[in-house]
Amino acid sequence: MSDSSSTTTVERKDADHRYEILVDGRRAGLTAYRDLNRQRVFFHTETDEAFAGQGLASQLVQQALDDVRASGMRIVPVCPYVAKFLKRHDEFADITDRVTPDVLRWLRAQLG
Ligand SMILES: CC(C)(COP(=O)(O)OP(=O)(O)OC[C@H]1O[C@@H](n2cnc3c(N)ncnc32)[C@H](O)[C@@H]1OP(=O)(O)O)[C@@H](O)C(=O)NCCC(=O)NCCS
Predict the structure, then answer these.
(1) How far is CA 98 from the centre of its chain?
(2) Which parts of the sequence belong to the N-acetyltransferase domain (predicted)?
(3) How close is the Cα of 36 to the center of ligand 1, in Å?
């Protein structure tokens, strides 16, 4: 569990192709991606059960998408959670691309 005194941080782990959210230094969730040129393709988000339902995935995805913008890249929301988040946050519409069959084929090949 996290509470109001917990410290929450988000880190991008380039080597692991993901952003992680840490609560008091403990990993509580992640959102995973692969980069296709300038597109960051998000394909999976998860929160550890002990931390579920506290808005952590929302904080994580918000900061991850802010980082995509800061990096001058674009978002492709294959992950249903990221897609749902974007429906509620139209401030990212200008840097969001559609999920296409080509992207899905490329992603499947990337993930083996
Ligand atoms: C989906 C998941 C990451 C949400 O984590 P969380 O930290 O509890 O999320 P938050 O508290 O920020 O947000 C909860 C919201 O996520 C929504 N949600 C739960 N599962 C979802 C899913 N599979 N796809 C989209 N949205 C989902 C809930 O409906 C809730 O929406 P609400 O705000 O309208 O009530 C977490 O439940 C999880 O790890 N699930 C298993 C893996 C998974 O299905 N990942 C999503 C697809 S890759």
Answers:
(1) 16
(2) 11-97
(3) 25
Residue-wise DSSP of 23-51: ETTEEEEEEEEEEETTEEEEEEEEE-GGG
CATH topology of domain 8-107: Aminopeptidase (3.40.630)
pLDDT tens figures, 14-56: 999 999 999 999 999 999 999 999 999 999 999 999 999 999 9
Count of all residues that appear for the chain in the document: 112
End-to-end CA gap in the chain: 34
Is the minimum distance from the CB of 55 to ligand 1 under 6 angstroms? yes
70 Cα: distance to centroid of ligand 1 (angstroms): 25
**pLDDT on residue 89:** 97
Domain ranges of the chain: 8-107
Report field, pTM of the whole predicted structure over 0.85: yes
